[in-house]
């Protein structure tokens, strides 16, 4: 890719005005001498929902977008209107990055490797016999694949829609072996026996304040990981830190999924450390 090539990318999701992703991509594009523009396509601001995805994708193609990131609540809804899926996206059943190239819409998942990289860096030596995951949506599917790939022996998945949790557990067991994942039914008891807790729900975002787990179920021996990154310190992490838990905020996943998305959009490998440093320098 030559320096005069324009990358026009965007993020489709609901309630994303606080997202650091545009600044993250554009700053790295500037550092590499690319003309790199990144736009927010906020369903809430546009008073739209996931039903608008076909129109939004068509508009992006007409305006020569290079690609799109996809976030809550569209990571699974986007799949039927794509032409191809990467092996990762097909296995996970969720897409967070769409490359628009030669008239084709190609779906990728960079969330899985993004979470795995953050987990390896932030919680490298934690016990992973039993882990509880809150949420079985698009991000949850990617994180669950990452957790089992990183050595979690048994993953209990809790979701407001139990059928969705069961469906994800079935998918994981096909990939990783019977009994590695299950839909949870008793949060208090399961957490009492767990080594770690991961929140993959949007609960804790600025637009959805609160915590997915009552504070009285937390204890100091539990490690707690979060994928929400605006704000970086969610209520769940604040509760956990106050008890002395080891914690991982959503920043690393946000950065490392963006590193891969940047490469897919531009064809240029970005400087991951520079992107991480820039992310950390942005005010929360």
UniProtKB/TrEMBL annotation:
<feature type="binding site">
    <location>
        <position position="227"/>
    </location>
    <ligand>
        <name>NADP(+)</name>
    </ligand>
</feature>
<feature type="binding site">
    <location>
        <position position="250"/>
    </location>
    <ligand>
        <name>NADP(+)</name>
    </ligand>
</feature>
<keyword id="KW-0057">Aromatic amino acid biosynthesis</keyword>
<dbReference type="Pfam" id="PF01488">
    <property type="entry name" value="Shikimate_DH"/>
</dbReference>
<dbReference type="InterPro" id="IPR006151">
    <property type="entry name" value="Shikm_DH/Glu-tRNA_Rdtase"/>
</dbReference>
<comment type="function">
    <text>Involved in the biosynthesis of the chorismate, which leads to the biosynthesis of aromatic amino acids. Catalyzes the reversible NADPH linked reduction of 3-dehydroshikimate (DHSA) to yield shikimate (SA).</text>
</comment>
<feature type="binding site">
    <location>
        <begin position="19"/>
        <end position="21"/>
    </location>
    <ligand>
        <name>shikimate</name>
    </ligand>
</feature>
<dbReference type="InterPro" id="IPR022893">
    <property type="entry name" value="Shikimate_DH_fam"/>
</dbReference>
<feature type="domain" description="Quinate/shikimate 5-dehydrogenase/glutamyl-tRNA reductase">
    <location>
        <begin position="123"/>
        <end position="198"/>
    </location>
</feature>
<dbReference type="Pfam" id="PF08501">
    <property type="entry name" value="Shikimate_dh_N"/>
</dbReference>
<dbReference type="InterPro" id="IPR013708">
    <property type="entry name" value="Shikimate_DH-bd_N"/>
</dbReference>
<dbReference type="InterPro" id="IPR036291">
    <property type="entry name" value="NAD(P)-bd_dom_sf"/>
</dbReference>
<comment type="similarity">
    <text>Belongs to the shikimate dehydrogenase family.</text>
</comment>
<dbReference type="InterPro" id="IPR046346">
    <property type="entry name" value="Aminoacid_DH-like_N_sf"/>
</dbReference>
<feature type="domain" description="Shikimate dehydrogenase substrate binding N-terminal">
    <location>
        <begin position="11"/>
        <end position="98"/>
    </location>
</feature>
<keyword id="KW-0028">Amino-acid biosynthesis</keyword>
<protein>
    <recommendedName>
        <fullName>Shikimate dehydrogenase (NADP(+))</fullName>
        <ecNumber>1.1.1.25</ecNumber>
    </recommendedName>
</protein>
<comment type="pathway">
    <text>Metabolic intermediate biosynthesis; chorismate biosynthesis; chorismate from D-erythrose 4-phosphate and phosphoenolpyruvate: step 4/7.</text>
</comment>
<feature type="binding site">
    <location>
        <position position="111"/>
    </location>
    <ligand>
        <name>shikimate</name>
    </ligand>
</feature>
<feature type="binding site">
    <location>
        <position position="229"/>
    </location>
    <ligand>
        <name>shikimate</name>
    </ligand>
</feature>
<feature type="binding site">
    <location>
        <position position="257"/>
    </location>
    <ligand>
        <name>shikimate</name>
    </ligand>
</feature>
<comment type="subunit">
    <text>Homodimer.</text>
</comment>
<dbReference type="GO" id="GO:0004764">
    <property type="term" value="F:shikimate 3-dehydrogenase (NADP+) activity"/>
</dbReference>
<feature type="binding site">
    <location>
        <begin position="135"/>
        <end position="139"/>
    </location>
    <ligand>
        <name>NADP(+)</name>
    </ligand>
</feature>
<feature type="binding site">
    <location>
        <position position="96"/>
    </location>
    <ligand>
        <name>shikimate</name>
    </ligand>
</feature>
<keyword id="KW-0521">NADP</keyword>
<feature type="binding site">
    <location>
        <position position="71"/>
    </location>
    <ligand>
        <name>shikimate</name>
    </ligand>
</feature>
<keyword id="KW-0560">Oxidoreductase</keyword>
<feature type="active site" description="Proton acceptor">
    <location>
        <position position="75"/>
    </location>
</feature>
